TrEMBL record:
<dbReference type="InterPro" id="IPR028082">
    <property type="entry name" value="Peripla_BP_I"/>
</dbReference>
<protein>
    <submittedName>
        <fullName>Uncharacterized protein</fullName>
    </submittedName>
</protein>
Length: 895
């Protein structure tokens, strides 16, 4: 068997398109920042080397991936599987490799299932021992002997037994043969066999072997079942290696052995007291070489990949990350049903539970030049072994128990059941009127301001560079109802404020590039953004004929995650246009290396909100006593997830919350109207607000400790709240709703001011002005905004601060790209890739180098809407420079 090269000198990964993103996400998938991300099931990834490429191309990629996992010694459990004729079952090599050179002070998987099956399969391959019932007994004895040779308590007893044969005759022979061997060998082996039978076959929870072999509850004992496997496969294995039946026999054994290995690598226990159970901090990795079709070892490699694909969907737990490199045959790709994509798209799939294998063709040209080194992963290290930690914990527990026995009053402290964010409803009686809004007037006012500032910027064009950015926005509102559901007005105001700041700075700072802003309406909900983007691309191609200041150097906006804005990002990215987003949060929006989202993505938001719902007292307890007594709340044990089908933002946030929330979940697909839509299996359907109210009330009656997680749009939420208030059948104890930033606009306009039964929590992207944690820069922005727009109902909303900071990011990149009297869009992209950081209105902003993801540790806030100003009940991320340096802000920020 060929061994992996463990040299200190790193190999380089080919610098193919999207390679930098793949490197980043590969390291994150192996060593995620949060433990719960280990529960995702990443897809089988196949990196396909070019046709007729030499074997060195495959080895270069494999070595680059391996080197990142441990240059000198393993930092995470992994192994490289080189397919060769002498190793027909690569699962044997996989299990042996994962158990060798384990990371220091980690608690390695002992792989009990794997080693038992490996011993069984080795015996089957050598020839079935015996016939009839004697086969099962001899198989059991052989496997137990192998287990004893590996040490541990069975090995100690075995070696205490002495020789295999007892002395003949005499008292000593009688004692050794009947008594001593019985105590040290026969009895332990019998107990071990019972345990294996119960664990592998009888147990409803973990009896994976019985399920794999389709054995019923009253099936034969475990070694009889395995002996039957040998009886079926041994005749096939005796045929010529090229015979189809021989290959079927190997495939069956590969499937059984790999199933055993995957069971050992199953879902790691989380949150238990035993420290050994908490020491998997990285994902096991299997790197597989695929030789060209017909080459030695090609069948073995493809057999392993087929087996893994067969087992992955039903795997109870995350399993390893499997990356195959080489030349997969067409038959393999057809059998696996692969999805062909690029490195950039594959990077995002590494963090998703995607059962469909992914093939990424690698180009030939990058192999001909220096590549990119993958930095070694840095998993968490442990100062002490798990045994030492266990001893310390037991000593501390003993001290607590002894102290508690002498001071029983310590145990009498009542639990804290206060409701997070206070008892007050959404609004008190004194604030039960809606805030007056004048949408058309306000929208036109901010457009006039931007137009005036564009003229101010153009005045600088005579002696210096002035450029234009495009801001895509929804159509202007026609009435108040449009305004409360759309954040376009505060977003435009934020853009106008930064443009004014930029123009003021340009008067004294010649390094600043004044920017014009072209606001382009693209329909309600961005429905017309794709044609507008195509027009922009054609316009840019003809821009040499216009004024210099009209040249477009970037795009700002995309405030909503829709399928249209997703396509628009892909189109603009293909044209090389730099883009900075605002409040679009869906992970799926990242369709281009030239797009920089500004807010935390839905994965991060869903994780924080799921932890908040499960840990925080937000649901009013059933059976409250006196009406005037302090309200008591409890964490949400159940959630009703309301989502809108075919809405990118809603589906994305709902699915990711569903993955993160630990309690019971009910999913309702809600879309008003008669247009039919598909309902995924296991979910409910609703087409009217009244129907949705009935479904939610039924869930509350069944499980009172239920919260609603809302991902549908704000207009639908208003319809639901009004229907719930009119119905009134399940509002006595209140209803807790947790949602995204989509609900901020409507909540701040007083739409729910007279709904005392509603406990509303929603996310935002900056701290309220009265929060003591808000940075000086945030407070400065608040004073600026309130001074310009004193009657704005959205002054506590994050839309204006987000657009203000996002425009700041784009203008900084333009400043850095400015050379002489020109600004090239390619240079703006380079400036963004080089990383930008500053203290902004939403907190401390820091974009990583060579990354187009959201800012590192970006501010995420959960607000409780109460009778006065909203209260921040959770503040995560870099809401100030000091907070940005904190590695662990505690739950729910780091759960």
């Amino acid at each position: 068997m060929r061994s992996a090269n463990n040299s200190v000198e790193p190999s380089s990964f080919p610098d193919d398109a999207g390679a930098d993103y793949f490197i980043r996400e590969y390291r994150t998938a192996v060593n995620p920042a949060r433990r719960e991300l280990l529960e995702n099931k990443p897809p089988l990834l196949i990196l396909c080397t070019p046709a007729d490429a030499p074997e060195s191309h495959t080895h270069r990629v494999l070595e680059a991936l391996r080197w990142a996992l441990g240059p000198e010694h393993k930092r995470v459990p992994h192994t490289v599987l080189y397919a060769e004729d002498e190793t027909p079952l690569l699962s044997v090599q996989a299990g042996a490799g994962l158990g060798f050179d384990i990371p220091r002070r980690s608690a390695p998987d002992r792989l009990p299932n794997f080693w038992l099956m490996a011993d069984v399969i080795a015996q089957i391959q050598e020839g079935r021992p015996g016939t009839g019932g004697l086969g099962a007994r001899k198989l059991r004895d052989h496997v137990y002997r192998q287990r004893a040779e590996r040490g541990g308590f069975p090995g100690l007893l075995w070696h205490l037994g002495g020789t295999d044969t007892a002395p003949i005759g005499g008292v000593r022979g009688f004692f050794v043969g009947l008594v001593w061997h019985s105590l040290t060998r026969a009895l332990p082996r019998w107990i071990w066999t019972l345990r294996q039978n119960r664990r592998l076959v009888r147990s409803k929870r973990s009896g994976w072997l019985g399920k794999h072999l389709n054995a019923t509850a009253g099936a034969a004992p475990v070694f009889e079942l395995l002996d039957q496997v040998g009886a079926r496969q041994s005749p096939r294995l005796s045929l010529e290696p090229d015979h189809p039946r021989h290959k079927e026999g190997l495939a069956a054994l590969e499937l059984l052995l790999l199933r055993a290995l995957l069971e050992d690598l199953g879902k790691p226990a989380v949150g238990r007291l035993l420290p050994k159970r908490r020491r998997r901090v990285a994902r096991p990795v299997l790197l597989v070489e695929i030789p060209p079709e017909g080459a030695p070892g090609a069948d073995a490699a493809e057999r392993l990949l087929r087996a893994f694909h067969t087992l992955q969907a039903g795997l109870d737990g995350p399993g390893p990350l499997v990356i195959a490199v080489g030349r997969p045959s067409r038959s393999l790709q057809s059998d696996l049903g692969v999805e062909r994509t690029n490195l950039r798209r594959a990077s995002s799939l590494l963090h998703s539970s995607n059962p469909r294998p992914v093939v990424v063709p690698l180009e030939e040209e990058p192999f001909e030049r220096p590549g990119l080194q993958i930095p070694p992963v840095q998993p968490r290290k442990f100062l002490m072994g798990w045994r030492a930690v266990t001893a310390v914990e037991l000593a501390a527990l003993t001290a607590v128990l002894v102290g508690g026995a002498t001071a029983p009053s310590l145990w009498d402290t009542p639990p804290d059941t206060r409701c997070v964010g206070g008892d007050r409803p959404v609004a008190a009686d004194g604030q039960n009127k809606r805030v007056e809004v004048r949408p058309t007037e306000w929208y036109q006012d901010v457009l006039r301001r931007i137009k005036k500032q564009n003229g101010q910027a153009e005045k600088y064009a005579k002696g210096r560079a002035v450029r234009t950015v495009v801001l895509f926005e929804s159509d202007p509102p026609t009435d108040a109802e449009d305004t409360i559901f759309d954040g376009s007005i505060p977003e435009l105001r934020g853009v106008a404020l930064w443009q004014q700041q930029l123009i003021d700075d340009a008067a004294s700072d010649s390094s600043r590039v004044p920017l014009r802003v072209e606001v382009r309406p693209v329909g309600a909900g961005f429905h017309k953004v794709v044609p507008a983007v195509r027009d922009l691309i054609q316009e840019v191609k003809r821009e040499d004929s216009g004024e210099e200041y009209e040249k477009i150097v970037g795009v700002l906006g995309f405030a909503q995650s829709t399928k249209e804005t997703q396509e628009a990002v892909a189109l603009l990215g293909g044209s090389g246009m730099p883009m900075v987003g605002t409040t679009a949060t869906a992970d799926e929006m990242q369709r281009s290396e030239n797009y920089w989202p500004f807010t935390p993505d839905n994965s991060e938001e869903a994780r924080v909100e799921a932890a908040f719902a499960a840990r925080s007292h937000i649901v009013v307890k059933a059976g409250q006593a006196e009406p005037n007594a302090p309200m008591e709340c409890a964490p949400a044990r159940n959630t009703v997830i309301v989502r809108t089908p075919d809405d990118l933002y809603s589906e994305s946030l709902a699915d990711k919350f569903h993955q993160s929330f630990r309690g019971d979940k009910t999913v309702i697909n809600f879309r008003q109207g008669s247009q039919p839509f598909a309902t995924p299996p296991g979910t409910q359907k609703s087409t009217t607000a009244d129907q949705l109210v009935g479904q939610v009330c039924q869930a509350l009656q069944t499980e009172p400790d239920t919260a609603v997680f809302w991902t549908a749009r704000a207009r639908d939420f208003t319809a639901f709240v009004r229907a719930m208030d009119a119905n009134g059948t399940c509002t006595e104890k209140g209803l807790t709703v947790l949602g995204g930033n989509e609900l901020t606009n409507v909540a701040l306009t007083g739409q729910f001011a007279d709904k005392p039964w509603l406990r509303l929590y929603h996310s935002a992207h900056r701290l309220p002005e009265g929060d003591k944690r808000a940075s000086q820069k945030t407070q400065q922005f608040v004073r600026l905004y309130n001074g310009n727009y004193p009657r704005d109902p959205w002054r506590q909303d994050g839309h204006s601060a987000v657009s203000y900071d996002a425009f700041h990011v784009l203008s900084r990149a333009v400043d850095e790209a400015h050379t002489g009297n020109g600004v090239r869009r390619e240079s703006v992209v380079t400036a963004l890739k080089n990383g930008i950081s500053f203290d902004g209105a939403t907190g401390f902003i820091r974009f990583s180098e060579f990354s187009s993801g959201p800012p590192v540790n970006k501010t995420l806030v959960i607000l409780r809407q109460s009778d006065g100003e909203p209260t921040a009940v959770v503040a995560c991320g870099a809401y100030s420079q000091k907070a940005g340096k904190e590695k662990n802000q505690g739950p729910p920020c780091a759960d």
